[in-house]
Design goal:
Strand content of chain B: 15-25%
Radius of gyration of chain A: 15 Å
Structural class of chain B: alpha+beta
Distance between the termini of chain B: 67 Å
Helix content of chain A: 55-70%
Low-confidence stretches of chain A: 1-6
Oligomer: heterodimer
Distance between the termini of chain A: 19 Å
Mean pLDDT of chain A: 84
Shape of chain B: globular
Mean pLDDT of chain B: 84
Helix content of chain B: 40-55%
Shape of chain A: globular
Number of helices of chain B: 28
Largest sheet of chain B: 9 strands, mixed
Number of strands of chain A: 3
Chain lengths: ~110, ~900
């Protein structure tokens, strides 16, 4: 998708994080792991993009952080989707659907 | 909502930085830990898993930086960093910082000081309601305007117009206030009953003067200004209702006006205001109130709502001739020559403004040039430093600093310098403005009070000037600094781009070019002042003591007054050390006693019946020996003597200008002129004297008519005694004072020299000359120092080159010439550019010069010579150093 394999199209990372969090609140590594697993290893999101994205989404008010203990009984920062974040996810998904369909049509036409 | 949250989060990030950082740390470590666990689950050992996780996550610091960069607060933080770094760098080179800050403080301070005076004199609007609706009234006569009116005129104008919501007048006069048994002269003001209500100035305590107070027979009342209240009564609120004595008239203090009210005349404040109706009681010797010929009141009006200035002017034009005729039923000839003009008066009236607005603008322009020169100097300093710091900048850019970041850093330093410069400039401006105001006042003659405090407008001005300055001197070095390539690191760091040096030189040429107009201006103003000081005044100002006194106030009148004058003249004239003594109603340069000549006032009975004369003539009543005392040559005829008294025929002496104007084809001697009322005895011209400067030093010869004290048509209570001494005045003054006390008793007298008296009328010229010279020399000094710096730097850089030249056989003299040629070219370029600028600017000040054209070759040559001399002298020092270079040392050093 990007120049290097595993890079994400600009702006899609935010959407993917929101999507991941739509099911349940997760901590940072969990999100990275889930993205990698679901994409079957196509997206390897590194910490350098992930954490700034968290800060950004938090500032936007789309996710909210909370310190909780993990399954291994360690403290971790869990991110959960807010109501506004849910709305944003819907809007972004719809937009993405529209755009990818359009791109697909263009690619098929040639 | 989003914005608010964002700001809140940012502020939290700024102020709870530690906590945010700790949380981020903890979160990253949790992440690392989770990653390690995941790897271990995949079968790696604990150590291997940790390493793998570390590799995966990369530099933790980089991640943190990425997170920190999300909010806006990071910009603030890096600005803060820049500031701290800037301050540290500046502190590391105190000499540079001091030189730059001083340079800027000088430029910004000078501009702000002059602007704050300009602001106070010209721009500050009267602090009253709707000042834009205020107009001032001026009587016009053939293109000249006069803004004094008589009280009867005021009354008629007030009662007959339909265009003014309120018409009010005032007159500032010294009044003797008796307080705690002592008599002091305070600045008093007569006001009409409508004064305070017309301006809409309320009382701070008590009440203001009301229309009822102006009625004849009303109880005498006075209102204190805030300043007067503080000064005389220490701000005691119980002062209301107290009785004070002004000129022997007891009156009740009824109110205090607010601290922001300084009156309607900018630069002249007052302590005490009383209604006009009290004037005849306060000055029984000069009851002006009912007299139409006493023009002494300034008038202002507030336009009625809905009436425009044009409409008001229109009505005044119709009204004015009627009023003139009513007021002076004898009739005024040439009514069509008179008019009434309305001028906007939102900023109040000001003699100061008329005298000083032009000089102040010129000085502001000069100060602006000084600032530009300062900017060029600081830019040069920054450039020189920039090349010294080339290495540092190269290192920083090699370490990954972006060009933008480096530029911002350099510019931050410029801003810092300006901030320091502006702050110190502002502080010195407050002080400078006060000094300037004190230059406006003349000790013993006129006290100027101006509110030159830092108001919003001055602060904005200083800020704008500062910002403009920073842009001007900061931009070039900033751009230049960031262009430093990494090559600098490879070489020893001393290599200079040729372009940097040429920019420095360009700046020097600019400085020279900018200094030239200032020096030329200074030269013109100084020469102009010199000419004014040496202008033929028609009297000899040296060695004359003047004593101003008002015996009428002390109760002398009628014969007693005449006898007193007689005695004073005889006994002072006989004092050892006195060559001659006389007295007059007006001293020279007051322009006092001026009056329109018309058929009803004065007419001529020559041998050819009645010749009608009209024009402006100055009447002055004098004692015998007046011309001898002042040193004015008597051209023909005789002086007045003791025999010219009530019993003898009326006689007058006229100025040469009057004689020429009224009797162009015949001798004035023996002609008869009728003075005063119709039917009074006509006076014979018995002498013609050289025309003295009577109103200003710049004037064309005036028509002056002198008549003797013995034939008092209108015996005034206040006189000026003139005494010409053979002994120094310093020793004579106490002697004369004692003599006067011996004759007249304890009456207040003011003594000063004629020289000081004349000099006070040159305040404006002196102020301009002094400040222009100061600024001109300053500019020259800055330019010379700049040239010295650049040449010294250039010589230091070229030591090796010079060494080689000398090793190849160049003499010291050749090297000297080489360097001097470089400097000369710069100076020549500067002069060639500066000269046309100077001449063009000179035209702007032409009207301020006296007997001098702005392109005066002497001044221009002088300015060029002084500037070039100073610049080349500055260049000579480094050139000598270059000539003394030892080739061996220079080459070994390399």
């Amino acid at each position: 998708m990007g120049e290097k394999p595993g890079d994400l199209v600009q702006g899609t990372l935010d959407m993917l994080i929101l999507k991941t969090l739509a099911l349940e609140p997760m901590h940072g590594y969990g999100i990275a792991l889930r993205l990698e697993q679901i994409s079957k290893g196509v997206f390897r999101v590194n910490a350098g993009s992930l954490f700034p994205a968290f800060r950004r989404l938090e500032r936007e008010g789309w996710i909210r952080a909370e310190w909780k203990s993990t399954e291994n009984n360690r403290r971790a920062k869990y991110y959960g989707l807010t109501a506004r974040g849910r709305k944003e996810l819907q809007a972004a998904t719809a937009e993405w659907g529209r755009q990818s369909a359009a791109i697909a049509r263009i690619l098929e036409a040639t | 909502m989003w914005l608010l949250r964002n700001i809140a989060a940012g502020l939290r990030g700024l102020f709870r930085k530690k906590q945010t950082e700790r949380e981020l740390n903890e979160e990253l470590h949790a992440y690392l830990e989770s990653a390690r666990e995941e790897k271990m689950r995949a079968g790696l050992s604990s150590v291997e898993a940790l390493r793998a996780a570390r590799v995966e996550i990369g530099s933790l610091e980089a991640v943190k930086d990425g997170v920190r960069a999300v909010g806006w607060e990071v910009t603030v933080e890096s600005l803060w960093q820049d500031l701290r770094y800037g301050i540290r760098t500046l502190r590391r080179s105190p000499a540079f910082t001091l030189a730059a800050v001083f340079s800027l403080a000088l430029g910004i301070g000078a501009n702000t000081a002059i602007f704050s005076v300009l602001n106070a004199v010209l721009l500050k609007v009267l602090p009253v309601r709707e000042p834009a609706r205020l107009v001032q009234l001026e009587e016009t006569y053939k293109g000249d305007a006069f803004n004094f009116f008589s009280y009867p005129t005021y009354l008629r104008l007030r009662d007959n117009n339909q265009v003014f919501a309120s018409l009010f007048g005032w007159a500032i006069r010294d009044m003797n206030l008796s307080l705690y048994g002592e008599v002091e002269a305070v600045a008093g003001m007569f006001v009409t009953g409508s004064y305070y209500s017309g301006l809409d100035v309320p009382a701070l305590i008590g009440r203001t003067i009301l229309p009822e107070d102006e009625r004849p027979g009303a109880d005498p009342v006075a209102v204190l200004s805030y300043g007067g209240w503080q000064k005389r009564f220490g701000g005691d609120p119980n002062v209301i209702g107290r009785t004070i004595t002004v000129e022997r008239v007891p009156m009740t203090i009824v109110g205090i006006t607010p601290s922001w009210f300084f009156g309607t005349e900018v630069g002249r404040s007052f302590e005490l205001a009383v209604p006009f109706s009290l004037q005849p009681r306060l000055n029984p010797d000069r009851p002006f109130l009912g007299r139409a010929d006493a023009q002494w009141i300034r008038l202002m009006a507030r336009l009625r709502t809905g009436v425009s200035e044009q409409q008001a002017s229109g009505q005044c034009a119709i009204l004015w001739p009627q009023i003139l005729t009513e007021v002076d039923p004898k009739g005024v000839s040439g009514l069509h020559n008179f008019g009434l003009r309305l001028d906007p008066a939102s900023t109040g009236l000001s003699q100061l403004r008329r005298d000083f607005s032009r000089p102040l603008f010129v000085l502001l322009g000069i100060a602006g040039f000084v600032l530009l020169i300062s900017c060029a100097n600081v830019a040069n300093l920054l450039l020189a430093r920039g090349s010294a710091r080339g290495r540092e900048i190269a290192v920083r850019s090699a370490l990954g600093a972006s060009r933008w970041r480096l530029a911002r850093q350099t510019f931050t330093e410029s801003i810092l310098l300006t901030a320091f410069g502006s702050t110190s400039g502002l502080v010195s401006a407050v002080w400078g403005a006060r000094a300037l105001v004190s230059l406006l006042s003349v000790e013993g003659f006129s006290k100027v009070t101006l509110n030159v405090g830092l108001d919003g407008r001055v602060l904005v001005f200083a800020a704008v000037v500062g910002l403009f300055t920073a842009l001007l001197f900061g931009l070039v070095p900033t751009l230049r600094a960031t262009r430093t390539g990494l090559d600098t690191l490879r070489t020893s760091g001393r290599v200079l781009g040729g372009r940097r040096r040429s920019v420095s030189k360009l700046l020097i040429a600019v400085q020279v070019a900018l200094s030239l107009p200032l020096l030329l201006g200074a030269g013109l103003f100084v020469r102009s002042l010199q000419k004014l000081l040496t202008v033929d005044t028609g009297f000899n100002r040296e060695g004359v003591l003047m004593v101003h006194m008002n015996p009428a106030r002390a109760g002398y009148k009628g014969t007693a007054l005449a006898n007193l004058y007689q005695q004073l003249l005889e006994r002072i004239g006989a004092t050892p050390g006195v060559r001659a003594a006389s007295l007059s109603t007006y001293p020279p340069l007051t322009g006092g006693g001026g009056t329109f000549f018309s058929a009803s006032g004065v007419s001529v009975h020559g041998r050819r019946a009645t010749a009608k004369i009209s024009g402006y003539v100055y009447l002055n009543q004098i004692g015998p020996h007046f011309f001898e005392t002042l040193g004015t040559p008597l051209l023909t005829g005789r002086d007045f003597n003791a025999q010219d008294n009530e019993g003898s025929a009326r006689v007058v002496i006229v100025s040469e200008a009057l004689a020429r104007q009224f009797f162009p084809s015949e001798s004035a001697l023996g002609q008869r002129i009728q003075l005063g009322e119709r039917g009074a005895e006509a006076a014979e011209i018995v002498g013609v004297v050289k025309t003295m400067k009577y109103e200003t030093l710049r004037e064309a010869p005036h028509c002056i008519l002198f008549y003797p004290y013995g034939q008092g048509l209108d015996q005034a209570g206040a006189v000026y005694l003139e005494v010409r001494g053979v002994t120094p005045l310093g020793r004579l003054t106490p002697l004369i004072r004692r003599k006067i006390v011996g004759i007249a008793g304890q009456i207040p007298v003011e003594a000063f020299t004629l020289n000081d008296w004349v000099n006070q009328f040159l305040t404006q010229e002196r102020l301009t000359a002094v400040l222009a010279s100061t600024f001109g020399l300053l500019a020259m000094l800055l330019a010379a120092v700049g040239l010295y710096g650049v040449m010294a730097y250039s010589v230091a850089q070229r030591t090796a080159e010079i060494g080689i030249r000398m090793a190849l056989g160049a003499e010291g003299a050749n090297v000297l010439r080489l360097i001097m040629r470089e400097a000369t070219v710069l100076v020549l370029i500067g002069v060639a550019t500066g000269l046309p600028i100077s001449l063009a600017l000179g035209r702007l000040v032409a009207s301020m010069l006296f007997n001098l054209t702005p392109s005066d070759p002497g001044s221009a040559l002088g300015a060029v010579a002084i500037l070039a001399g100073a610049a080349l002298a500055a260049a000579y020092v480094p050139a000598r150093r270059a000539a003394g270079v030892d080739p061996m040392v220079a080459l070994r050093y390399e």
